[in-house]
Design brief:
Helix 2 (58-68) crosses helix 10 (454-475), helix 3 (99-107) crosses helix 8 and helix 8 crosses helix 9. By secondary structure, this protein is an alpha+beta fold. The relative contact order is 0.19. The longest helix has 22 residues, at 454-475. The chain is globular and about 70 Å long. Strand 9 (166-172) and strand 10 (177-180) form a beta hairpin. The strands form 7 sheets. Strands 5, 12, 13, 14, 15, 18 and 19 form a 7-stranded antiparallel β-sheet that branches. A 4-stranded antiparallel β-sheet has the order 8-9-10-21, with helices on one face. A two-stranded antiparallel sheet has the order 1-2. The chain has helices at residues 41-51, 58-68, 99-107, 140-143, 189-199, 205-208, 272-282, 354-371, 398-408, 454-475, and strands at residues 2-5, 18-21, 69-70, 87-88, 124-127, 132-133, 136-137, 157-163, 166-172, 177-180, 184-186, 229-237, 264-268, 294-299, 317-324, 332-334, 345-347, 380-384, 410-411, 437-439, 479-482.
């Protein structure tokens, strides 16, 4: 794993927040939670309008969403789902003890049951969909054919090579050179892609000059970083010996090992009034419309996504996580040095906008109301706060919720935007100002997609693959190894 640490985040008491990336074949698809969510159609339609290309609208990407997936239920809408793609999905089949009372609680607040959150309209209470199949995680390297492809592991690229403004290949940290007859494609992720671009001379002159790097193109590389911040709330169970949560000896059905200890995934929009008021504080304009703003995960376990341990992993507690899916805060990735093996400097600027505060509060209030509902009185004893902090409830003030966020906010590891389409790359994923260089990873997402990013990323990659294939047919694409000079 790549292990990263943010700069101190001033809006959350100066805490540093860890982040991780998959450092193995398949990248982070081999180590993530495995949730399979597309996000709201409005996200992609906004993306399409921003870059002036219908390819990136929801309808434009739908063929690629379908192409990438092998949907688990062949009775679902064939207009929305693919049934022969490489990534198998699964949903349900684990029959957790809290399944039905939890469903009733989540619906008690007014959200409706949504039979399919992966049709572009995810809002409501829906059953979790994962890219697990027959007990195995479905990650990229086992799902996509690698025959005929030369893969080099434990290999780090130092910089992209240029002749003038044309990318001609790459140099590795050991001095080896590789050259391409057509183009170079970067897919290093939201943290490493901007680092590599800047090490190669593509980025803000103010940043490159700090490290005496010759500039090739002035672009806002490393700007516009967005991420899904989150906060976990821990709940103490009544009668935990009944096997309600991971860690209990009675939580032992074989099927529990075939995916995450979850079954329901509520998604919703924050109240219009709250976002309108937040926009006035932020000096922006709120435009009401279809959207998703937050998601709640209900995990029958204690999760590690928190700065301090709130309860033991012994089956006595469960966790609800609240994700801010529509952040307007934007951070940066900058260079720490000229070494590609050094981590870049990551500053997410979590909760720099009142919008993000309003969204996370709305998600917390929904969660607290659901967990306090009559449906769970028999199962939930109380909220277990972090050490030294008071309990929160649906009656808590905004200030009390903000204090909890300041102390406990975390990342859900959904970073993007640092080589944004429309700013750093064009709608063909080609880097502005140079020739022969593309970027295909979450760094090109120009806005925060209201989803766990792997399903959108696979669709974007499938679409980009068609663009690259079309270019290759025109001029040929091949690599050859060259000795270092």
């Amino acid at each position: 794993m790549y292990s990263y640490q943010s700069t101190p985040q001033p809006q959350i008491e100066g805490r540093t927040i860890p982040n991780w990336g998959g450092r193995l074949l398949s990248g982070s698809s081999a180590v993530n939670y495995g949730a399979w969510t597309r996000g709201h159609a409005a996200d992609f339609d906004t993306w399409s309008k921003e870059v002036g290309d219908p390819r990136w609208s929801y309808s434009g990407l739908l063929p690629y969403f379908k192409k990438s997936e092998h949907w688990h239920n062949d009775k679902d809408d064939a207009a929305q789902h693919g049934f022969s793609g490489p990534i198998h999905t699964s949903s349900g089949g684990r029959d957790y003890a809290l399944r039905e009372p939890m469903k009733e609680a989540l619906l008690s607040t007014g959200l409706k049951l949504n039979p399919d959150m992966n049709d572009g309209y995810p809002n409501g209470v829906t059953q979790l969909v994962e890219n697990w199949h027959e007990g195995s995680r479905q990650h990229a390297a086992i799902c996509y054919e690698l025959q005929g492809i030369h893969v080099m592991t434990n290999t780090v690229v130092e910089r992209v090579l240029f002749e003038g403004n044309k990318a001609t290949g790459v140099e590795l940290t050991d001095g080896q050179h590789f050259t391409a007859s057509k183009e170079v494609i970067i897919s290093c992720g939201a943290f490493r892609t901007p680092q590599l671009l800047m090490l190669s001379g593509i980025g803000p002159k103010t940043e490159l000059s700090k490290h005496n790097i010759k500039q090739i193109a002035e672009l806002p590389v490393g700007r516009h970083l967005h991420d899904h911040s989150s906060i976990n709330i821990t709940w103490k169970l009544k009668n935990p010996s009944n096997g309600y949560a991971f860690g209990s000896p009675a939580f032992n059905k074989p099927e529990y090992a075939t995916g995450n200890p979850m079954d329901w995934l509520p998604t919703a929009a924050a109240p219009d009034e709250a976002l309108h008021n937040a926009a006035r504080v932020d000096g922006t304009t709120f435009k009401p419309g279809p959207r998703s703003d937050y998601e709640v995960t209900v995990m029958y376990a204690i999760t590690a996504a928190a700065p301090v341990e709130t309860a033991p992993v012994d089956g006595t507690h469960i966790t609800t996580g609240v994700l801010c899916l529509s952040p307007t805060s934007r951070g940066t990735v900058t260079l720490a040095s000229t070494k590609a093996t050094d981590n870049p400097i990551i500053d997410q600027q979590y909760f720099a906008t009142e919008h993000d505060r309003a969204v996370i509060r709305a998600g917390m209030r929904y969660t607290l109301q659901a967990m306090e509902s009559a449906a769970l009185k028999e199962y939930i004893e109380c909220e277990t706060p972090p050490p030294g902090m008071p309990r929160i409830s649906s009656a808590s003030s905004d200030a009390e919720l903000d204090a909890r966020v300041n102390a406990m906010a975390w990342s859900w590891f959904h970073a993007g935007g640092t080589a944004s389409m429309g700013k750093v790359v064009d709608s063909q994923c080609r880097v502005y100002g140079v020739k022969g260089l593309r970027v295909v990873d979450a760094s090109i997402f120009p806005l925060s997609i209201t989803a766990h990013l792997q399903a959108p990323m696979y669709a974007v990659a499938e679409s980009a693959a068609d663009l690259i294939a079309e270019a290759a047919l025109k001029g040929g694409l091949r690599w050859r190894r060259m000795n270092s000079l």
